[in-house]
Amino acid sequence: MKAVVYPRLLNLNYPYQNPYVNDFIQALEEQEVEVVNMPHKNPLFSLVFKHTKEDRLKVFTFHSFTEIESIVRKHRLEEIGSIGYKQFFAENSWSNFGLQFVNLLKK
């Protein structure tokens, strides 16, 4: 099984890093779940809502552990591809936002 854990910050003795996220990743890996996203320096938290509404991605949010079972049951057999993931992040990259902003100013 593969999973994406967000946010997954780089571990450079970052004082604001959430140790619970690292513990969760370790627990997943101990159960042979592959966490496929690389650690990142500056996660775009504003994209979390977009992630959950994007059909090309398989991103789910939950508020309590009891919600996870129904999410897994519903989506466990769905294929996950990297093409949609890469397209989404290209469309929502800082360079693309900058280009859109410049185009707005030129109108």
Provide a descriptive summary of the structure in words.
- The structure is a single chain.
- The chain is mainly α.
- It has one domain.
- The protein is 49% helix and 4% strand.
- It has five helices and two strands.
- Strands 1-2 form a two-stranded parallel ribbon.
Domains counted in the coordinates: how many?
1
Radius of gyration based on Cα positions: 16 Å
Helical content stands at: 40-55%
Shape: globular
Low-confidence stretches: none
Averaged pLDDT:
78
The largest beta-sheet arranges its strands as 1-2
Order of helices and strands: EHEHHHH
Number of E-state strands: 2
Largest sheet: 2 strands, parallel
- Into which percentage range does the β-strand content fall? under 5%
Characteristic key phrases:
mainly alpha, 107 residues, globular
Please describe the topology of this protein.
Elements: E1 2-3, H1 19-30, E2 34-35, H2 48-53, H3 65-75, H4 82-91, H5 94-106
Parallel strand pairs: 1-2
In short:
With 107 residues, the protein is mainly alpha-helical.
